[in-house]
Amino acid sequence: MQVPAPFEYERATSVDQAIGLLDRLGDTARIIAGGHSLLPMMKLRLANFEYLIDINDLRDEMGHIIVEPGQIRIGALARHRELLESRELLEAFPIFADAERVIADPVVRNRGTLGGSLCQADPSEDLSAVCTTLDASCVIRGPAGERVVTMTEFYVGPYETAVGPAEILTEVHFPLRPNGSSAYEKVDRRAGDWAVVSSGAAVWMDGDVIADARVGLAAVGPNTTGLPEISHALRGQAPSEELFARAGAIAARSCRPVTDQRGSAEYKRHLADELTRRALRRAVARIATPAGV
Ligand SMILES: Cc1cc2nc3c(=O)[nH]c(=O)nc-3n(C[C@H](O)[C@H](O)[C@H](O)COP(=O)(O)OP(=O)(O)OC[C@H]3O[C@@H](n4cnc5c(N)ncnc54)[C@H](O)[C@@H]3O)c2cc1C
Q1: Ligand 1 pocket, 52 CB below 6 A?
Q2: Which end of the chain is more exposed for a tag (fewer CB within 10 A), N or C?
Q3: Is the pLDDT of residue 32 over 60?
Q4: Which parts of the chain are beta strand (E)?
């Protein structure tokens, strides 16, 4: 079935008005942003909603990328293409450009949003792995006001987030820390496909040793997974191939892949290992040579 069931449609005029509509209409209503995940599900009749509330006119409130002391704030309506093309993001977090280059195709990237990607909570979602890697936090607004949650709190399960029925994800915050860089590695079956496995890494140095590091994997568990054990193993150590191999081994044994049409669980564990090593290697190399490694 390639046609969605009939629905009512309203364009929100402000975040608060959209929240009011969600509150009034309850479970029968859904936010639509880029529509690249929601509409295919509705066309396949995997999801049916009586009302769609379009938030695409709320670019002033939710379409920004703002660099300020200590953090970058990105509105939930920022589109994939804007994340890919932002000079400030590339300089602060090259992991975004790595990931965005391999998300879908230009048609999807022109329309799909950061907020839609996170709220869809697909375990293979690339931006979720990026946000986990960068220790982002999510600003959620609802009738009772605003709250901020970590990525770990944000993901409740596959396709399930902490965003309540009458709430909207408005913004994502990314802490800026000195002497760091980041990278993203993905294996897909063909260009623009969802990940078989992907791994993001962020590293911050203190002189010759790693002050802190984070790794986030996608497509190997119910949600994108942060791996604190890797951070623990890397802190205070000098970067080396042996250290990256240790981190890769932790990634392989900590993740929970399943065998599916994209590959066997064993193959995915191998990828988690190899891609984690590569992402860490590139993140560290970029600290010395920021542009284009
Ligand atoms: C052909 C194709 C290939 C793709 N390949 C990839 C890929 O390789 N990697 C990848 O990571 N992604 C991929 N995607 C997904 C793409 O990134 C989508 O843009 C993204 O999943 C959803 O973003 P959206 O803005 O279109 O969300 P929508 O489809 O509009 O919404 C998705 C869900 O999020 C909710 N929602 C949206 N915004 C908000 C908000 N601000 N607050 C609360 N709820 C909200 C909606 O109600 C809906 O439930 C692909 C999609 C397609 C169609």
Answers
A1: no
A2: N
A3: yes
A4: 8-11, 29-32, 51-54, 65-68, 71-75, 137-142, 145-150, 155-157, 160-161, 168-175, 180-188, 195-206, 209-218, 225-226
